[in-house]
């Protein structure tokens, strides 16, 4: 099959006979018709699955658009509603219902904003931070959101709350903004809460780094101003089983591990059986106001308090918003909508009480790794 442009689609590829380099080969050439190596077939199958998903979404988008145009205000078609629901991550609801988070952000914004300031809000979501800044007296707020649907929701919510004269919502990434185009002038204050359970998973570090150098006036401030990571080692076959398999009913099913999450993923630690093998220790610190904020790593020494098998590092953050306000997603904070970050070790690691274990925590892109 071909698409409408005459291009062969990934679905049409015979995975058993594709010419691809064998694993570890020194050449890109292979005998015509020779079967692909198993790992190459997995890669091609993954590409085919992704292409199928994109094709499905494109078809649903077309149906939803047609329904919206046909309704002309007579009521949203179910296809439109379903498509919109898939475009907005579900955690937005829990986040907006996180009173502790919202109150902390509101107090910090109130203390940092000065009358007449130009505030840049990165990652608008529903426009909450932008409206907080306007309420605190900002003269102008530019709020950017990469998700076009959320940007439109934010725009309408800003209007509904009577703040359109102060808040301008831009559909796009902050890295695409330019002073003199989307921003009339550099921002006096940048506010953002693009933070996942492991701090770095929504691109906080490179985003703040870029905004500081290209969108902030000299002497301007950022919120949050600093962050720290904490963590301890745990033993928990159940939690590891959320992302790793070995056997099922006597069959070896480890090949599925090729699709497991690389790096950290969220867990609500209190809901799963586990044993803490070390106390909580400081892992890393980030100066968001002046620090480098690139990829990096640290070697951490952790005192072992119990014999066991270390399987993962549980990580949480403490975010310094400035003006004396902090928020955290530690395991004992059951009110936070943020879970904790589970960072699997590459392999189970036996540990002995009253010794010290050394490991390296790495942050690369939007993932945490431990080994």
List keywords for this structure.
about 375 residues, alpha+beta, Rossmann fold, Hnrnp arginine n-methyltransferase1, 7-stranded antiparallel β-sheet, 8 helices, globular
Can you characterise this structure?
It is a single chain. By secondary structure, the chain is an alpha+beta fold. It has three domains: 15-24 and 33-87; 93-193, Vaccinia Virus protein VP39 (Rossmann fold, 3-Layer(aba) Sandwich), CATH 3.40.50.150; 226-370, Hnrnp arginine n-methyltransferase1. Helices cover 27% and strands 29% of the residues. The chain is built from eight helices and 17 strands. The strands form four sheets. Strands 6, 9, 10, 11, 13, 14 and 15 form a seven-stranded antiparallel sheet that branches. α1 (38-71) packs across α2 and α4 crosses α5 (128-135). The chain starts with 37 loop residues before the first helix and ends with a strand. The model is unreliable at 1-32 (pLDDT under 50).
- Give the helix level as a range of percent: 25-40%
- Tally of strands: 17
Ends apart, CA distance between termini: 45 Å
- Taken together, the total number of domains comes to 3
Structural class: alpha+beta
* Overall shape: globular
Q: What would the average pLDDT be, to the nearest integer?
A: 88
**What is the CATH level 1 assignment of the largest domain?**
Mainly Beta
For this structure, the CATH topology of the largest domain is Hnrnp arginine n-methyltransferase1
Oligomer: single chain
Strand residue content: 25-35%
Alpha plus pi helix count: 8
CA radius of gyration: 24 Å
CATH level-two architecture of the largest domain: Distorted Sandwich
pLDDT below 50 for ≥5 consecutive residues: which ranges?
Answer: 1-32
Give me the CATH superfamily of the largest domain: Hnrnp arginine n-methyltransferase1
**SSE order:** HHHHEHEHEEHEEHEEEEEEEEEEE
């Amino acid at each position: 099959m071909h698409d409408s442009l005459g291009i062969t689609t990934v679905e049409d590829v015979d995975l058993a006979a594709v010419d691809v380099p064998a694993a570890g080969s020194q050449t890109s050439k292979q005998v015509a018709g020779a079967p692909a190596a198993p790992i190459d077939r997995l890669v091609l199958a993954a590409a085919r699955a992704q292409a199928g998903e994109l094709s499905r979404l494109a078809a649903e988008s077309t149906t939803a658009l047609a329904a919206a145009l046909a309704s002309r205000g007579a009521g949203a078609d179910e296809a439109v509603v379903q498509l919109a629901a898939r475009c907005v991550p579900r955690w937005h609801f829990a986040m907006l219902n996180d009173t502790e988070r919202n109150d902390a952000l509101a107090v910090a914004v109130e203390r940092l904003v000065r009358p007449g300031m130009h505030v840049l809000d990165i990652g608008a979501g529903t426009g909450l931070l932008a409206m907080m800044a306007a309420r605190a007296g900002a003269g102008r707020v530019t709020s950017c959101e990469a998700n076009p649907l959320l940007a439109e929701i934010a725009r309408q919510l800003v209007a509904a709350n009577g703040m359109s004269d102060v808040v301008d919502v831009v559909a796009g990434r902050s890295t695409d903004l330019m002073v003199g185009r989307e921003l009339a002038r550099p921002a006096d204050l940048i506010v953002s809460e693009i933070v996942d359970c492991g701090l770095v998973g929504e691109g906080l570090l490179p985003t703040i780094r870029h905004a500081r150098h290209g969108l902030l006036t000299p002497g301007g401030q950022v919120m949050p101003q600093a962050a720290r990571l904490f963590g301890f080692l745990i033993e928990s076959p159940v939690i590891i089983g959320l992302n790793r398999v070995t056997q099922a009913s006597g069959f070896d099913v480890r090949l599925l591990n090729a699709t497991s999450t690389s790096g950290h993923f969220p867990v609500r630690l209190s809901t799963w059986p586990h044993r803490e093998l070390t106390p909580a220790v400081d892992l890393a610190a980030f100066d968001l106001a002046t620090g480098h904020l690139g990829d990096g790593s640290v070697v951490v020494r952790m005192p072992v308090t119990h014999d066991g098998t270390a399987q993962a590092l549980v990580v949480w953050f403490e975010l310094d918003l400035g003006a004396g306000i902090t928020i955290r997603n530690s395991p004992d904070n059951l009110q936070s909508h943020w879970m904790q970050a589970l960072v699997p070790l590459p392999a189970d690691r036996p540990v002995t009480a009253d010794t010290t274990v050394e490991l390296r925590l790495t942050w690369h892109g939007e993932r945490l790794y431990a080994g």
